[in-house]
Amino acid sequence: MPRVLGIDIPGRKKLEYSLRYIYGIGHTTAKEVCEKAKLDPSKKADDMTDDEIQRLISVLQNDFRIEGDLRREVSANVRRLISIGSYRGRRHRASLPCRGQRTKTNARTRKGAKRTVGIVRGKEARSAVKAGGK
């Protein structure tokens, strides 16, 4: 497993696939990185020489924003949206979808487990709500 910028990339996979394990590098960016570093994308990551690894690291550091820098930038953007009180910022603060998805029936991942609101009729249903809802 070669270590690139503090991240272990899988060595048994082709380089263009193993680069995707780095936060901020996807399909297109991985191909672009291989092209700029003059590396063969179909070569296994374990078969890279030290010189090739150094070229890869220098290209990633100089030309791309990845890992910690990218995470900080994204979180700063979200904090900025929240602080200015924009619609998207309010949606982030409320943990609701920000990109226009419907929330009447879906968005369970973002909203969390269902919570019953209002009257629950029937003794069995009431005891189930008390046990699960608290």
Q: How are the SSEs ordered, and which strands pair?
A:
Layout: E1 3-4, E2 7-8, H1 15-18, H2 27-36, H3 50-63, H4 67-84, H5 87-93, H6 108-111, H7 123-133
Antiparallel strand pairs: 1-2
Can you tell me about this structure?
The protein is mostly helical. The chain has two domains: 3-63, Helicase, Ruva Protein, domain 3 (Orthogonal Bundle); 95-133, no CATH class. Helices cover 51% and strands 3% of the residues. It has seven helices and two strands. Strands 1-2 form a two-stranded antiparallel ribbon. Helix 4 crosses helix 5. The protein is elongated and about 70 Å long.
Overview in brief:
The protein contains seven helices and two strands.
Name the CATH architecture of the largest domain: Orthogonal Bundle
Integer tally of domains: 2
CATH class of the largest domain: Mainly Alpha
Tally of contiguous helical segments? 7
Shape: elongated
Strand order of the largest sheet: 1-2
Characterize the largest beta sheet: strand count, sense, and whether it forms a barrel. Answer: 2 strands, antiparallel
**Into which percent range does the helicity of residues fall?**
40-55%
What does the radius of gyration come to?
23 Å
Q: Give me the CATH fold name of the largest domain.
A: Helicase, Ruva Protein, domain 3
The string of secondary-structure elements, in order, is EEHHHHHHH
Strand % is: under 5%
- Give the total of beta strands: 2
Give me the secondary-structure category. mainly alpha
Mean pLDDT across all residues, rounded?
A: 89
GO molecular function: rRNA binding; structural constituent of ribosome; tRNA binding
Biased composition (Basic residues): 101-112
InterPro entries: Rbsml_uS13_C, Ribosomal_uS13, Ribosomal_uS13-like_H2TH, Ribosomal_uS13_bac-type, Ribosomal_uS13_CS
Subunit structure: Part of the 30S ribosomal subunit. Forms a loose heterodimer with protein S19. Forms two bridges to the 50S subunit in the 70S ribosome.
